[in-house]
Design a protein that fits this description.
16 helices; 35% helix; disordered N terminus
Length: 524
């Protein structure tokens, strides 16, 4: 594979290979930062603003947007505030932190969006330590370091002074540790996470480049809890690299919601997360649900010549042991008018039958063009209409790509000429910034595999398959059943042989067993 000519970017989540956080001596920041602070009756806001006013990041590169999410009392900003401060009030019926944080992001002008809760006190170099990463890694989504403080007696003036002179870091030696620290230790600061620990991107102190936020679609106002985790999942699928900004330190004033009501929060979030986030898969206990975001999105192209095969191909997908799947059926559906025609001589008959066949199935979308992306589904399979899957082919393919962590797996039909390609969506999103071939970059840096049709149980559909019933029995199950039968037969033969030995030499056998039992008795 020829070496790509474009600048390298981070592979998987191995950010340390690109930039380890050590700044050149002459480094000068150039990227502007918008600090967004959602507020709803939070009395500690003046302390947060005082700590931001004492930051060592260039003043002209910081703007602060306080978003008032329907506070019952007028906001108290306090006596020490950063110079570039705006207050935005939420209008309309929408409410909640997610909506307020998104309103702030829309109002922001900075290159980097940095969400800070109104009960945080940032150390002097906090903003600098967040912002530096996107100067070197454009996809950097950074996670600040925070300790939890149970008691404090600061005034805004105290905070401003102690942040400026650095003594704020010594104020709380017994501050509690955030749960994400254990994840960081287990994954070498997320270098070994492949992005799957996206839930460590917590909104109390997290930043992301604006363009990446926009590509991910922004925060979901419908979520009233866990919105930062759901955004983090979509950031991952949009190409984010998650980086613990360990030197971006802060104090969290009081316990977090998770610390105060963790089990109840998890109970509420698991339902919303299951709808929107296919990974991790344990949340989707109802295996036959049609989820908002599928684990796998399959793309099949249909035309007048192959629509009957496309229909059968899709039926096999839907009959798979992998139920968490959606299909985009690509075809010239708009050309199927309702005008008078000879029904049985219609050259578009098979297309019309295909449209009718899937008309009420929510898992199948009839689309006019091949989708450029299946975001935010984590996996995409481009499947030729003439390729037929065994009932467990998708499970075998997904298990293979999940274990190998490659960017793509190609499957070639037995007779050639047809190729199915399974791709990791997050890998594709990262690579599409390439100035040369992003496919080449993926294969060279992320990895690709080619498997045979036999490896995953794929065959070429024939005319006989078009009207055949689909066998839902897993080939693996048949293999296991055959093995169980073989073991049962072997056990029966062994029992018969043992019985024959016992009948021939019952006294000898009894004596040997009795002798062994005597030798096993403990000595008194």
């Amino acid at each position: 594979m020829a070496t790509s000519s474009w600048r390298p970017t981070v592979v998987k989540n191995r950010w340390r290979e690109r930039f380890d956080g050590s700044l050149p001596p002459d480094w000068t920041p150039t990227r502007s930062v918008s600090i967004v602070i959602p507020v709803h009756d939070t009395p500690t806001l003046p302390l947060t603003l005082a700590s931001i006013a004492a930051q060592d990041y260039p003043e002209q590169l910081i703007e602060v947007i306080v978003v008032d999410d329907g506070s019952r009392e007028p906001l108290d900003l306090g006596p020490v505030v950063p110079p570039n401060l705006r207050v935005v009030r939420v209008e309309g019926a929408e409410w909640g932190r997610s909506h307020a944080a998104h309103v702030g992001a829309l109002a922001a002008t900075g290159d980097i969006l940095y969400w800070v809760d109104a009960d945080m006190v940032l150390f002097r170099d906090n903003v600098r330590e967040h912002a530096k990463w996107s100067h070197f890694i454009p996809e950097a989504a950074t996670i600040g370091s925070k300790g939890f403080v149970a008691d404090w007696s600061y005034t805004p003036e105290d905070v401003h002074r102690r942040v400026r002179d650095g003594s704020i870091s010594d104020a709380h030696r017994d501050a509690g540790e955030h749960w994400i620290e254990e994840v960081f230790r287990r994954t070498d600061d997320l270098n070994a996470s492949d992005g799957r620990n996206y839930s460590t991107f917590t909104g109390a102190s997290a930043s992301v480049p604006r363009d990446l936020y926009e590509r991910a679609g922004g925060l979901d106002p419908a979520l009233k809890l866990g919105e930062d985790t759901e955004l983090a999942y979509r950031l991952w699928q949009a190409g984010a690299v998650f980086i613990p900004a360990r030197d971006a330190r802060s104090w969290h004033l009081g316990a977090s919601t998770m610390q105060k009501a963790g089990e109840l929060v998890k109970h509420v979030n698991d339902v919303s997360f299951a709808q929107r986030m296919p990974i991790p898969r344990y949340r989707r206990r109802g295996a036959d649900h049609v989820w908002q975001v599928p684990f796998l999105h399959v793309v099949i192209e249909a035309d007048e010549a192959n629509a009957d095969y496309a229909r059968t191909c899709a039926d096999r997908v839907l009959a798979s042991t992998l139920r968490d799947v959606h299909i985009s059926m690509v075809g010239p559906w708009a050309s199927l008018g309702d005008g008078r025609r000879r029904i049985l001589e219609d050259p578009q008959l098979e297309l019309r039958l295909t449209e009718e066949w899937f008309r009420s199935d929510p898992r199948v979308r009839l689309v006019e063009e091949v989708p450029p992306s299946v975001f935010p589904a984590p996996y995409r399979l481009d499947l030729p209409a003439r390729m037929g899957l065994a009932v467990d082919s998708l499970d075998r393919l997904l298990r293979r790509i999940d274990e190998s962590r490659v960017a793509s797996i190609e499957v070639h039909a037995p007779s050639g000429g047809h190729r199915a390609v399974l791709r990791d969506s997050a890998a594709v999103a990262r690579a599409r910034g390439a100035e040369a071939s992003w496919l080449e970059w993926l294969a060279e840096h992320w990895g690709a595999e080619i498997v045979t049709a036999d490896d995953v149980g794929v065959d070429l559909l024939t005319a006989d398959d078009l009207d055949a019933s689909i066998d839902r029995t897993s080939p693996r199950l048949a293999e296991l059943q055959a093995k169980v039968g073989w073991l049962r037969d072997r056990a029966e033969r062994a029992e018969a042989a043992l019985a024959a030995v016992g009948a021939a030499r019952p006294r000898s056998l009894r004596e040997r067993v009795a002798g062994r039992l005597r030798r096993m008795r403990p000595v008194r």
